[in-house]
Amino acid sequence: MESLNILIVGVGGQGTLLASRFLGKAAEEMNLDVKLSEVHGMSQRGGSVITCVKFGEKINSPLICEGEADVILSFEQVEAARWISYLKKGGTIITNTQRIESMPVISGKAVYPTNVLEVLNASDVKVISLDALKIAEECGSPKAVNVVLLGVLASELKDVPKETWAKCLESVIPAKVLEINRKAFEIGYTEVH
Prior knowledge:
- By secondary structure, this protein is of the alpha/beta class.
- The chain has one domain: 3-Layer(aba) Sandwich (Pyruvate-ferredoxin Oxidoreductase, domain 3), CATH 3.40.920.
- It is about 40% helix and about 25% strand.
- The model has no long low-confidence stretch (mean pLDDT about 90).
């Protein structure tokens, strides 16, 4: 497998860190070098959370610079738009259509953009958007949004066998919620294909 740069973006509490651990585990299972870098920002207050995941034969730096991401995995649609400059030309954005209003929007000092998906779709990139929150709720837990999106990402990464993803899921998800997350992953994996 060539090197792969994945930028995971969302807001605090959405499970971006679990997603990065999941991807890191998959890289390890395939005997690839992996580097992770997490930026928490104001995550405790619903602010942006960014995680860089890079894997391949030899990775020197964990950071992803502008124009270097192969994939942006976005847990909230405005976060996808905020970080689109980090995506390489022809890259892929996988985004949840969920809207999470920031503190400036909640306080009335800003307005949530109404055309985020249109802007993303007009860009020179592949965009996969879905209501991962609705799917997660149907699986039994709104907290499984991240796993739904990971399922979509896994379906795009053809070099990684599905059995590897299943093994990684078991290693990062607590046993008491594993079945809900297995279902969420499977729906995400098959949802867009």
